[in-house]
Specification:
This protein is an alpha+beta fold and 607 residues long. It folds into five domains: 5-98, Zinc finger, CHC2-typedomain (DNA Primase, Chain A, Alpha-Beta Complex), CATH 3.90.580.10; 105-240, DNA primase, catalytic core, N-terminal domain (DNA primase DNAg catalytic core, N-terminal domain); 243-455, Dna Topoisomerase Vi A Subunit, Chain: A, domain 2 (3-Layer(aba) Sandwich); 458-562; 566-606. Helices cover 52% and strands 8% of the residues. It has a five-stranded antiparallel β-sheet. Residues 433-439, 444-453, 541-545 and 601-607 have low confidence and may be disordered.
């Protein structure tokens, strides 16, 4: 049933979400929010939050998210209409009458949702059963821990051509749901030549795809090998239309709404499921992904519900750059005042998951997110690099191509501002006589514009490591040898490192407060102040880095990144020379090659 928006808004306004949930969940006030144990899954540590002033709840453990209506639907197993009738009775509001057809449609949707929820539970159980061993090994090799796997409810679809078993899910659900419903929900496939339906997903890692409330409405499946297609999504169903859904939207929406003094983080759009999960795990919990297709108008509207200027961070290959430009063209007609896109660039051949493994979250934040370009600049560079602009006729063509694309913007105010802004830039280039110079610097036609290598992230990583050790001194003693082996070129940080080693040897049970007091009493106040300022400037405080579990995980990653790795230095030197072939960069590359050759030779002789 379609209720008038005004009625639903009034209903939500009359219901205190904290009071409603507090009848069954013990909630503790935490600033402007309430926290408690999630009523929808078993947990010992509270991860369930109620944000009263914004009217939503969210669980960071299982992903449950919604408003008062969604809560009643989940808690009491009611459909949409039944939940509204229940709340309206409490609020003293008369409910607009539903037609029999509308009630039937609402009940049918509930049944499909229940079938998808049962399938998600089946896939998840299979992953943790003996049949899911290979899938768990694959996910572990991709850097996922158990907590992350369970948080995203990843699963395993059994069955394969080798065993001939194609009906594991059908057998598990057929007693509870009619076969026709499982076909309608995209869980089974009907053979074209007739015969018994069989499981749509077989021998694939399963990624549940949720709706705005986080409920499973479809699945994505990935093979463990090179079988084609590598990724397979559910077919379109009454619940699911892949061009209207973004993977992890509900979790991203909850995190985007958790504002702090620095404001909400932008939505980050990547290409794949694993990229989304890697970013969430690294603290960038507003990441989403389209489902294997180019961004659609409907998905762009969903993005703008998350943030006014989402950052597109597609893979650093030619296909990824083409996808970015397609998204730009799709977004142009939809631009409105204050609503646009940003475009981030990754090094060639890398995706966000690769980049995080190579450089860590600090560098991703500084070099990729903060280095993203606004839409106008991406559009300008795309047209400017497409053809030469060294003659009046070619400049006129450049201007005409810009004008043609800007004319697709429907909003007259944005269209006028765009044209005026880019026209000023065009005349500035002409007046300064720099067009010929810029042409010489532009890559040859057909050659992709290679982004520069990120700045050396290690100074910030070293600062972060010391910062974390001060916040969690209990980690110093177990890592004495690792800390001793690290090279700290910064004299002030090196002195601080040595002092931490010394005091941890004397007071191994020291806590953060004692560590700060000891260091302050021994002349390190200024160094710690500089250290805290550097960490704060890199935007780390707003991502909750003070949690001990997160600090331990980050320390493990920092020790990995800062540990000795000559081959990484050699690869970095090779990339640097490729982008900047100076004699100094050549000498450094040859020296590293020679050193690596000698070490490899010594190793072979020793064996």
């Amino acid at each position: 049933m379609a209720f008038p928006p005004g009625f639903l808004d009034e209903l939500r306004g009359r219901i205190s979400l904290a009071d409603l949930i507090g009848r069954r969940v013990r909630l503790a006030r935490r600033g402007r929010e309430y926290g408690g144990l999630c009523p929808f899954h078993n947990e010992k540590t509270p991860s369930f939050y109620v944000v009263e002033d914004k009217g939503f709840f969210h669980c960071f453990g299982c992903g449950a998210h919604g408003d008062a209506i969604g809560y009643i639907m989940r808690a009491d197993n009611l459909d949409f209409v039944e939940a509204i009738e229940r709340l309206a009775g409490e609020a003293g509001l008369a409910v607009p009458q539903a037609t029999p057809q509308e009630r039937e449609r609402a009940q049918r949707q509930k049944t499909l949702l229940e079938a998808l929820a049962a399938a998600a539970a089946f896939y998840e159980a299979q992953l943790w059963a003996p049949a899911g061993t290979r899938a768990r090994e694959y996910l572990t090799a991709r850097g996922l821990d158990e907590e992350t796997i369970r948080r995203f409810r990843l699963g395993w679809a059994p069955g394969s051509r080798e065993t001939g078993d194609r009906q594991a899910l059908r057998r598990a659900l057929s007693g509870e749901f009619p076969e026709a419903l499982l076909l309608e929900g995209g869980l089974l496939r009907q053979p074209e030549g007739g015969g018994s339906p069989y499981d749509y997903f077989r021998s694939r890692v399963i990624f549940p795809i949720g709706d705005r409330a986080g409920r499973a409405i479809a699945f994505g499946g990935r093979t463990l090998g090179d079988e084609q297609p590598k990724y397979l999504n559910s077919p379109d169903t009454p619940l699911f239309e892949k061009g209207r859904v973004l993977y992890a939207w509900a979790a991203a929406r909850a995190n985007a709404a958790r504002r702090d003094d620095a404001g909400a983080a932008p939505a980050i759009v990547v290409e794949g499921y694993m990229d989304v999960i890697a970013l969430h795990r690294a603290g960038f919990a507003t990441a989403v992904a389209p489902l294997g297709t180019a961004l659609t108008e409907a998905q762009l509207q969903e993005l703008w519900r998350l943030s006014p200027e989402p950052v597109l961070c597609f893979d650093g290959d030619a296909a990824g750059q083409r996808a970015s430009i397609r998204a730009l063209d799709r977004a142009l007609p939809l631009l409105q005042p204050g609503r646009s896109l940003q475009f981030a660039r990754l090094p060639p051949g890398q995706d966000p998951d690769d980049f995080l493994r190579s450089y860590g979250p600090l560098t991703f934040d500084q070099e990729v997110l903060r280095g993203s370009q606004p839409l106008w600049k991406t559009l300008w560079n795309e047209e400017f690099n497409a053809k030469p602009t060294d003659t009046p006729e070619r400049r006129a063509d450049f201007r005409a191509r810009l004008k043609a694309r800007i004319d697709s913007i429907r909003d007259p105010v944005v269209r006028g501002e765009f044209w005026g802004f880019l026209l000023d830039r065009f005349y500035e280039l002409v007046r300064s006589s720099r067009l010929a110079h810029l042409k010489r610097r532009r890559p040859e036609r057909g050659t992709p514009d290679v982004p520069p290598l990120p700045r050396d992230p290690r100074p910030t990583q070293r600062a972060m490591l010391l910062f974390d050790l001060i916040e969690l001194p209990s980690e110093i003693s177990p890592r004495l040898e690792q800390i001793t082996m690290l090279d700290f070129p910064e004299s002030d940080l090196d002195k601080l490192r040595l002092e931490l080693l010394e005091v941890a040897d004397i007071h191994p049970e020291m806590d953060a407060e004692s560590a700060h007091k000891h260091l302050g009493d021994n002349g390190f106040s200024e160094t710690i102040g500089t250290l805290c300022s550097r960490i704060s400037n890199h935007g780390l405080a707003k991502r909750g880095y003070r949690d001990p579990v997160t600090i331990r995980a980050e320390l493990a990653e920092l020790f990995r990144l800062l540990g000795p790795n000559e081959r990484s230095d050699l690869e970095a030197a090779a990339r640097t020379f490729g982008l900047d072939p100076t004699p100094q960069n050549w000498d450094r590359l040859q020296a590293l090659k020679e050193r690596q050759f000698m070490e490899d030779s010594d190793s072979q002789m020793g064996s």
